[in-house]
Amino acid sequence: MNLIKNAARRFYYKLPTRYRMGREYRALRKFLQEAQWWSTDRVAEWQLQRLQAIVRYACDNVPGYHALYKDAGIAPSDIRSLADFKRVPRVDKKLLRDNLADFTSRAIPQSQRIYVTTGGSTGEPLGFYHTRSNHVREAAFLHMSFERSGWRPDESLAILRGAFIGSEQQFWEFDRDKNQLLLSSYFLTERSYEQYIEKILAHKPRHLSAYPSSATMLAAMILSRGEAGRINFQTILLESENIYDWQREKLRAAFPNAKIFGAYGHTEQAVLATMCERSEAYHVWPFYGHAEILNATGNEAQEGESGEAIATSFWNEATPFIRYRTTDFVRKGASHCAQCGRRFQLLDAIEGRLQEFIVTKTGRYISMTALNMHSAVFDRVRQFQFYQDTAGKVVFKVMRKEGYSESDSHMIQRELCKKLGDDMELSLAFVEDIPKTSRGKHRFLEQRLELAYGD
Ligand SMILES: [Zn+2]
């Protein structure tokens, strides 16, 4: 039985991706191929039609939305412009989590619902429903995006992310059918470094798909040994976490020939922003979802201003997300990309979850993106993590490298205090280990405070 299964699997993965993924995938790609070059007006018109259809669908099939809109006095026919859409009430994770049955569509039979959950590395995870189409559509968008970097779906790939856990003895696995080298992000240490490198050199994967934190850890180890360029990835695809500037710098130094390509999205599939061929700004896909960036007063942020991403998915039929508070903060960029010409809203930075901010005594929120950790001051720091459980106080946990001395502590204190400001107390703590999250990510800030924004 297993033999047959294995043979079938092998045959399946021999098929080119476009056949394997099916008709819906091919049709969506064909649409995106053309639509990505549409004018601003044409994109807006398409979005408005989708939003009208989704609000109507939710009103007709999803009791939670029906009740919400009735209470707000909004009928689907009231939405005649994108400005009208802003009157639709927002929903948040708590509302959906506590009332999942009511926010699930009656139009999708139980047998077609697939239960999925978000990571929940910060706060409680959120569970909801997808259908098989979600997987196929997501692949179409991601593949279209990644191809801008030179990546191709059927080429060899190393994966350094959370899905494969392995063990200290068996930290890798080679999937022959998919041509993928799976590397555990949990066991990459100074001790296992050489074995990781050997595995990569033996299989020579053309591309790397990784958490930014894991890829940077590998880069830091490469750089500390003076082995820049020893591994030659053509592209490094980064997802699931923010990419800090200091991480990009380390990656560029360790992998001088690799194109670094980032994607920002969620399990909720309501917003997707990816880089382009020519720019490292995030381009929000206007055909994936409708994204608003709202500042603390609830108004659309200006260019250069940060705000929370409020997203509406164009493709979630089972559990629709309509004006959904992602709790992610992003910095708004230009309204389109001058480099590639796509009329996509740009994001200059993904600042991350509210739980990735440090809060000062006077209530200022400091984004982790604002703390540049790429400085000689941190040369003798192997790994670090901020820890906060009191407003105005933060602990900087340090795993020391050999040769670390008191003068390093002084320099770090001075450097960080300058950035954190006078309304912040910083203390250092030396630790032997910084545990990863259950999904194998490294967290740069453990935020124990419940932070609120704009409520
Ligand atoms: Zn562009």
Structural commentary:
- 30% of the residues lie in helices and 24% in strands.
- With 455 residues, the protein is an alpha/beta fold.
- The chain has three domains: 1-19 and 158-263, Rossmann fold; 36-130 and 266-354, 3-Layer(aba) Sandwich (Rossmann fold), CATH 3.40.50.12780; 360-447, GMP Synthetase, Chain A, domain 3 (2-Layer Sandwich), CATH 3.30.300.
- It has a twelve-stranded mixed β-sheet, sandwiched between helices. The protein has a four-stranded mixed β-sheet with strand order 19-18-17-20, with helices on one face.
- α12 links the parallel β18 (393-400) and β19 (425-430).
- α3 crosses α8.
- The protein is globular and about 70 Å long.
- The mean pLDDT is 91.
- The structure holds zinc ion.
Summary?
By secondary structure, this protein is an alpha/beta fold.
Task: Look at the helices and sheets and give the structural class.
Answer: alpha/beta
Count of the separate structural domains = 3
Q: What portion of residues belong to β-strands?
A: 15-25%
Number of helices: 12
Strand order of the largest sheet: 4-5-3-6-7-8-9-10-14-13-12-11
What summary fits the major beta sheet? 12 strands, mixed
CATH architecture call of the largest domain: 3-Layer(aba) Sandwich
Topology, number of strands: 20
* CATH hierarchy class name of the largest domain: Alpha Beta
How big is the Rg? Answer: 23 Å
Fold-level CATH name of the largest domain: Rossmann fold
Between the first and last Cα atoms, what is the distance in angstroms? 57 Å
Low-confidence stretches: none
Quote the average pLDDT.
Answer: 91
Specify the overall morphology. Answer: globular
Helix fraction, binned, reads 25-40%
Distinct ligands:
zinc ion
CATH superfamily (homologous) name of the largest domain:
ANL, N-terminal domain
